[in-house]
Amino acid sequence: MTTMTIARTAHATRLGNLTIEASAFGLTRVAFTADPTAPTTDLGFGRAHAFEAGRQIDEYLAGARRNFTVPIDWSRMSAFDAIVLQTLSTATGYGETISYGEIAQHMGRPSSDARKVGGALARNRVLIIVPCHRVVAADGALTGYAGGLSVKRALLDLESPELRLAL
After folding, report:
1. CA–CA distances in Å: residue 133 to residues 4, 9, 99, 126, 153
2. Is 151 left (phi over 0), alpha (psi -120 to 50) or beta?
3. Which residues are catalytically annotated?
4. Hey, which bits of the chain come out as E strands?
5. Of these four, 60, 123, 147, 157, which has the most CB atoms within 10 Å of its CB?
6. Domain locations in the chain?
7. Which CATH number describes the domain made up of 77-159?
8. 13 CB-contact burial (10 Å; exposed 0-12 / middle 13-18 / buried 19+)
């Protein structure tokens, strides 16, 4: 059994504190945290990915970036979850929203698989970079987000200031 070194850094943003983790292959986690002093490790090849993710997130929040180029290590999630997250990433662009059922349809599955898609999105370990904040209910309503609905709304407003979705 091979162990993989994970680099970790704490990253403060205007929307809250993030923990960013990466392996040598790419990001493994971007998550909101209440602890601004989360332990930082600079070990392994993943540190460049972790720090690059922080830089790109800062650019995105400043309105200077629309796409992320830092690689993601998909090996730490199930195949289904990885497909859902990859589909979301390719099916929606900056300033767009999509429903759970529409993601299922993009995957070649029936829209009735919306709950399965929602479960995979709830397990998204790479927030912001994999834009699950762009997923809304079939009626356009905002639904859950690991960073909270106020953060989801702020991210959607950042991407599309003319579209103000109600909470």
Report:
1. 29, 22, 11, 11, 8
2. alpha
3. 132
4. 7-13, 16-23, 26-33, 98-99, 135-136
5. 60
6. 7-61, 77-159
7. 1.10.10.10
8. middle
